[in-house]
Amino acid sequence: MAAALAVCGTLVQCERPPYVQRDKDADAQSKDDADAQESWLVIRQAWCVCVDAQGIIIHVGPLAEAGEIVNGAQKVIRLEKHQMLCPGFIDTHIHAPQYSYTGTATDKPLMSWLQDYTFPAEKALQDVEKAAEVYERIVARTLRCGTTTAMYFGTLHNASSQVLADTCFRLGQRALVGKVSMDRNGQQGYQEADTKSALQDAENFVRNLKQSQAGKAGMALPVLTPRFIPTCTPELLRGLGDLARQYDCNVQSHISESLDEVEFSAALHPGEGSDAILFDAAGLLRKGAVMAHGVHMSDADFALLKARGAAIAHCPLSNFFFAHGYLPVAKLLKQGVLMGLGTDVAGGYSPSMFNAMRSAVLASKAGAIQARTAHLDGDHIIDYRHAFFLATLGGAQALDIDDKVGKLQVGMQFDALILDADAPGTNIDVFPRDSIEDVFQKLCTLGDDRNVIRVFTPVLLQAYMQKRAKLETETSKE
Ligand SMILES: [Zn+2]
Hints:
- It is built from 17 helices and 15 strands.
- By secondary structure, the chain is an alpha/beta fold.
- An eight-stranded parallel beta sheet has the order 6-7-8-9-10-11-12-13.
- The protein is globular and about 65 Å long.
- The two termini are about 25 Å apart.
- Zinc ion (ZN) binds next to β6.
């Protein structure tokens, strides 16, 4: 099969989660590389990834063995010394309508923050033109930062949330989009009229989005989105659980995020148990369900989540502002709890997954300091490699789309980035003694949107190839 595009140079990716032993029979290709044999994060130099015109990966392997397919490729990108190809970033928790006030409103605890900033901003996006403006900007911004997939909260409004999904598709970002459901404890003008109409709107949103995306390779998927326990009646939660089962849909919400939220939940449901137990009773803990934060979950809650195949969206930057605690990421990864990384815009002030990765490392350091002060045991530290896992393969597993994206292997879709440590205006200085591992660590630790020099999804690949054809500038070296 002829390749539309071949990218030749250094490839970095997580081939499996950390702390999980490799299946001896799996991945015969990896066995060729003795250095990578035991590693879950691999950096392969002089490698080659080839993609067909639909954006499906058709070859991954050593460049030395790929002469024929590379020579036959319509376009070849040969990476420079400090450039590398990696899977695109996956933001597992982000609120698109809150982007307009990102970088402000960092001064209040969660429950008053919602009332004073969030609900008014979301209410305003009932106007689809206003929504279109905000959504155009957040999708463009996150794509520039290397986010090829995002799991978005929209607003209560079906039409505006559909605009968000349409914007993602048009700009080439893979998206899982939720119309928010909330039938209590909102505010004047921003709460659904009653539970019945809330469920009808949620179902209409799922059906319409599925219909509008037919034949578009699953680039935008609907998500059932109860905001969180305090704003959803048990009837609404149960109805959404039924819809998740009926339409085989992803689910997203917030879970045991902060002390004020946990107190509010407990006051509404005395003696009924934790957020996790309440979600589970409604059938909302399932594969592809992504629950943000989880900072105040118990070991039993995490075990329940794991048993159901549901995942945590770890949002470390937001946690510093709201959560009154930290998530024990290293412990949960060792236990095999599914987990991705989220920016949680605007609770997290940065839409960049580079910042989310750095914040995850810092949060684990803060957790270790706290544990030491309290004389607790525990392995809390994660490093840039674990953060990169959460931002790529971990996110794909959390969203239950790891059969399509999260790593670059044959048969998967080409959601990928070219990172360049030497990009114009870069914040990074590479020295002659730096190894390729050092360059990758510098990209994770110091990188930003300037270092993302090319973003690919199947939609963006088609646009790229059309542009190349139009300009008639194909050469064997970019
Ligand atoms: Zn959130």
